[in-house]
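Regression test attached.
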Amino acid sequence: MGPATSPQGGPLTRRGFVLRLLAGVGGVLAAALVVPAAGFAAGPAIAGRLRWPFLGGSVPPTPRATGWRAIGPVGDFELGVPKLVPVTLPVKVEGAVEPTQVAVYVVEQDQADAVILDIHCTHMGCPVAWSDGAKRYLCPCHGGAFTATGDPVAGPPPRPMDRYQTQVTDQQVWMGPLIEPA
Amino acid sequence: MRIFDWADERLRFKPLLRAFLDRPIPANVGWLNTFGSATLFLLIVQIVTGIALTLVYVPAADHAYQSVQYIDTLPFGALVRGIHHWSASVLVVLIGLHALRVFYHAAYKYPRELSWVVGAILFVVVLGFAFTGYLLPWDLKAYWATVVGTNVAGAAPFIGNLAVQLLRGGPAMTTATLTRFYGLHVWVLPATLLLLVGLHLFMVIRQGIAAPPRAVALTDAVPGESRRERYEREYAAEKRSGHPFYQALLKDALVAAVLFLVVLALVAAIGVPLEAQADPSAVGYVPRPEWYFLDLFQLLWYVSGPAEPLVVFAIATIGFLLFILLPFYDRGWQRHPRRRPIASLAGIGVVLAVVVLTYQGATAPTPTSGAVNLAASTTLTVGQRAGLHVYQVEGCGACHLLSGSGGNAGPELTHVASRLSTTEIQHQILSPRDKMPAFTDISPSDMTNLLNFLSTLH
């Protein structure tokens, strides 16, 4: 702060001093109120992993869960043909664990390998549907299309479909957590 | 009346009331000027019905949908929810018309630049209400439109991921998202709205209603006068030839009444929409936003490629800044639409773009199972008919439009035979040049029939 002067350039009056003091006290009180309130509001959002990409992108809206779950014997799946499988996940949200039903595409690669894909288009998150005829996942929103293993082939999707960690052991397909887009 | 006089004898509010109701306003203020008060009226309708709805609605994902269904069974429940739903749509129309009127009259120019800025922010706040409001019923439309809407925010460089997670309350769409949107919809946005509406009205009353522009000014210019003096000289002449404000209120009241009847008619004719309960695994559902976001939804068709998020972000940011900062780059003295042709043409261009994009969004094709509706007059041979069957079984319609049905990932095939020869079509099916998958497992006889069918499409 420079030397104490009034707005007119003269010496600081009692009035000017009181008004400045009020502005200062008001500013401090406002900050003391807004900082915890805003921080609290942002808290649950930024508690998880945050990325700071130059090129932004969609975030799969699927409820997240940790741990592994068996989603069926290998024999249930046809080689290279996606199958829509409903999965109930224990989703931790706002202090409670809620069983939440999601769906995933399971594609068997061979007897010992499978791919589990999130159903959301990587463009804007609409649910893609497998078309047996076109042999593509087709997005109902902006014409995106993906191959059976989730590679984008048409339309605006910028990245392959998001995958879950997957394991095949003892003829059983296991689904792990969603692999967050890089 | 005696209570009124008793209170006035103490509070002396009659002079205030007289200053408010009897102040002169410019003579040409007319029906177009009712859009602002109509917007205010609809905001009040939203606040009253919204407060009523909070008394029953439950903002939690496991219960929200059922509570909305329950509201519809209560006395006046469907009516109150219907008014809230439909007057939101009418409000978006009216705030748009109000902004257009202000643009048409160039009322955002000196000295009312700040009224425009506050009004433009209010426009965005109203869209924020619409966006947060339609998640609350937690039906399919709500859920998927919010998935898309929050992902649009993800397009921002560096802070995209943060923006999505701030909106959703984490990376996923869960009950946390619903609770957040509820908090925004009933506390954060209304508080912002009331503050800004208060500011907006204060400015309107302090400065007076802008006079509709005249091709020829009422008074003659005085050499050497300042901008303020020039403005005050002309506005004083407008007020001298004008009429008292309470007369304009008659038009405002009539428009408000008509709009309320329109809202009631929409509730009666269409009812209150509610789709099936939100389902994160709803493969096959076709997400479409409310009509007022269809233009933005459709815009996403026209940008693709690796830089798409940047382009989306740039369009949104530049559009917002051009809108909100209009008075600071369009600063000419002229206010009559014919005296500012560039601004008038730009305004018409924006309106046309919004109308066309909304129409295209409303009629956008979606991938289909492959069903094709050919014109009734189409006559096909047995072979061609078999080819049509192959077309449907192979799912060609998932990507290609044919006679008005099908997807639009690939080119339209309605007139494919006038573009490509049969050999070229066959070559494209078996070894495609571009992103189309190769259909090599079609049997020779099926292929012959399919080509026979496609070659009829001139």
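Expected vs. actual: identical. The beta strands of chain B are 24-25, 243-244.
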